[in-house]
Amino acid sequence: MQFRLDELEAAERLVHGHMDPTPQYAWPLLAEATGAETWVKHENHGPIGAFKARGAITFVDWLRRTHPDCPGIITATRGNHGQAQARAAARAGLRAVIYVPKGNAVEKNAAMRAFGADLREHGEDFDTAREAAMRAAAEGLFPVPPFHSELVRGVATYGLEFLRAAPPLHTVYVPIGCGSGICGVIAARDALGLSTEVVGVVAADAPGAKLSFEAGRIVETNSARTFADGMAVRVPVPAALDIYGRGAARIVAVGEEEVAVAVRLLFSATHNVAEGAGAAALAALLQEREAMKGRRVGVVLSGGNIDTDWFRTILSGGIPTV
After folding, report:
1. How far apart are CA 251 and CA 284, in angstroms?
2. How far apart are alpha carbons 74 and 57 in whole angstroms?
3. Dihedral sign (CA 175, 100, 98, 234)
4. Radius of gyration of the chain (CA)
5. What is the pLDDT of residues 39-61, one digit of tens each?
6. Phi (first) and psi of residue 275, to 5 degrees
7. pLDDT, position 136
8. CATH of domain 5-51+149-315
């Protein structure tokens, strides 16, 4: 899955018709903490507080053009993908059925309902909810997978914005859930002809993408229990691995305490709220601070949708229990 620059620029025009570009800033207090000139891409400033809004815009536009009689969509999520799909579907006059695992983030569930989703709880983790959603597609709704070329084309627009607006970046750290984010950044880098290293980040307790990257094949894990719920995936997506397996420099695993430290640092240094997955890129940079010292580095703050109780726990020095 490769995109020409004109294909990404067309997606960018479409996306910017539904949302403004998000900012990127170099924060001096982050530079003090990391030893690197640290640029943050603020996808938490988008219309759903996360990068997924972009892919939903391009996906629903594609769906309306290719399946004009489709009454709606059905998909599974831990929250941000579901908010994005519900928002885009509602704006297109479509129905949205969203499956989430039991015990999913309360405030993400509330946001999905507010965007118009018919929310259904099923199973104990994302992958179980995803399997149920795909089975339920027999209701006549279009099944939205967690990874699709139109999702990636839309998501790649934040990579295009970031790599064009920031000064030349040596390395960009990107969290990995199902893979649209890192694949979008790789697509943007390659379309622009840049040499920027792209480094994926996973939760140490949900390491499937890292294990798969290192093995060169899909490696499933038995569990994916992490408060960085956007990365809580047991079964990596083969099509995504095909891209980041070739295009990423490496994948870094960060622990729960490292992510909590990064959430606190983002708040104290920039006064931005980050969810676990949103802080993971900074956590990885902090882990690799010696190697990155003196370089110009980008981190993707992919989302800020963290439940109040979890955020309170982190700011108090703790780690949320899942």
Report:
1. 9
2. 15
3. positive
4. 18
5. 999 999 999 999 999 999 999 99
6. -75, 175
7. 86
8. 3.40.50.1100
pLDDT digits (tens, 9 = 90+) for 222-274: 989 999 999 999 999 999 999 999 999 999 999 999 999 999 999 999 999 99
The residue type found at 72 is G
Tell me which DSSP letter residue 48 carries: T
- The tokens for 311 are 């955020």
Number of neighbouring beta carbons within 10 Å of residue 95: 18
Instruction: Tell me whether residue 165 is exposed, middle or buried, using C-beta atoms within 10 angstroms of its C-beta: 0 to 12, 13 to 18, 19 or more.
Output: middle
CATH architecture assignment, domain 52-143:
3-Layer(aba) Sandwich (3.40)
Q: State the chain's mean pLDDT as an integer.
A: 96
Domain edges within the chain: 5-51+149-315, 52-143
> Cα separations (Å) of 184 from 23, 88, 199, 264?
17, 19, 13, 27
Q: How many CB atoms lie within 10 A of CB 290?
A: 7
Which residue in 310, 316, 319 sits closest to 283, CA to CA?
Answer: 319
Domains 5-51+149-315 and 52-143 in one fold: yes
| Whole-prediction pTM | 0.95
Which ranges of 24-148 does DSSP label H, i.e. alpha helix? 28-34, 52-66, 80-91, 106-114, 126-136
**Closest to 18 measured CA to CA, from 183, 160, 191, 157:** 157
Amino acid occupying residue 315: L
| Residue 167, burial from CB neighbour count under 10 angstroms (0-12, 13-18, 19+) | exposed
What is the rounded CA–CA span in Å between residue 299 and residue 42? 9
Element (H, E) at 13: helix 5-16
